[in-house]
Amino acid sequence: MFKRFRDRRLDEETRARYRETLIMKEDLIWPVFIVEGASKTIAIPSMPGVYRYSLDTLLPKLEEYISLGLTSILLFGVPEQKGIEQAYAGDGLVQTAVRAIKQSFPSLEVITDVCLCSYTEDGHCHIGDNDSTCELLARIAVSHAQAGVDIVAPSDMMDGRVHYIKKALLDENFNKTKILSYSAKYASSFYGPFREAADCVPKNGDRKTYQMDICNVQEAMEEISADIEEGADQIMVKPALAYLDIIYRAKQSFKAPIVAYNVSGEYAMLNSAVQNGVLAPDVIWESMIAIKRAGADRIVSYHVPYLLEKL
Ligand code: PBG
Prior knowledge:
This protein is α/β, with parallel strands linked by helices. 41% of the residues lie in helices and 17% in strands. An eight-stranded parallel barrel has the order 1-4-5-6-7-8-9-10, surrounded by eight helices. Helix 5 crosses helix 6 (161-171). The structure holds ligand PBG.
């Protein structure tokens, strides 16, 4: 006697019935870079197929992708001039974009990245002191909430920032604005292309004094648990593909929704292999399935337009 597993693999219809992991359109979050000015669609050389948009070119793009099933975006502001005041200005780049996007597409979920690195002169995510940085981050988060954002996503890795942000949001009566915390964010070399896109390459040193050491696992669980205690509604593991073990453990240990960030370097790597004909495009789908199978509830990825078309 032996079991006939191959009966489940006969044809696509049968395989679909036995499939254990699914990706839905609602699982996908598209990262968007917004720049000042008009009529801009600026290519990012290290990430072919990914662009920085001005608001007027972004809105029709969103409309196109919403018709394919896009339900959520993660917004990054790339200001022309450096200066931290712009990060929390009521009429700043991100705040203006959030207002316009929510007005045009009320049911699109808008998440904003909350960080200083595109605004500081030195390209770091802090201004030197941990706690004063947290106060600034809270101010940025409140300005995004005032613009109508659904979720704020702090990506700086300062200690206590979720506590500061939650308190500031509640003080201003934004009790519906959610926090997606980049809890387990590693000091990864996979962020290289993003830093070109967001103009936030650190001018000196690296981010290893605040982002996590790539060798640590237990510490990621401590970071996640601290963020949940401080008031995070959802937690992020970043990067994704080289950190599937962290996603898996986070899923086993916590009830909060887990978002995995399939980062710029991961996109660039797969995209170039596909473009060069080294790998078949199906590797993209396979990689997204791997992230979900590991335990991610949702995925942030530059592949989202491609994935929506596939779905
Ligand atoms: C900002 C931020 C970074 C990313 C998201 N938010 C860069 C960094 O921390 O250096 C990386 C995203 C990606 O690589 O796609 N702090």
